[in-house]
Amino acid sequence: MINMVSFILRGRLRRRVVLALDEPKTPTMLGKTIKAHRSGISRVLRELREAGLAVCLNPEDQFVRFYALTEYGEQLQQEVRQVIVHKYPDQYSREREA
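The structure assignment produced for this chain is given below.
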């Protein structure tokens, strides 16, 4: 599990997407939430899907796709949150504001 926590923490956008996926969201919703471009978010979502951390809830829809964390992704989200809160409290508060 530590390798996957490291995988999430290594990418700033990846970390922000994982922390923002507290409920199913579209790439556009995530972009507004974390103030990032949809293209980067789509790339991160693809990485998370390939790693088994996220899933597209309605892949048949070509216009509005919702994504959510898998059970494993939710576990890692909690681990990442704990690492950030305990080791980098200032960074966590800034990311929550972003």
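Interim note for the steering committee: Residues 2-97 form a domain with the Arc Repressor Mutant, subunit A fold (CATH 1.10.10.10). The longest strand covers residues 54-56.
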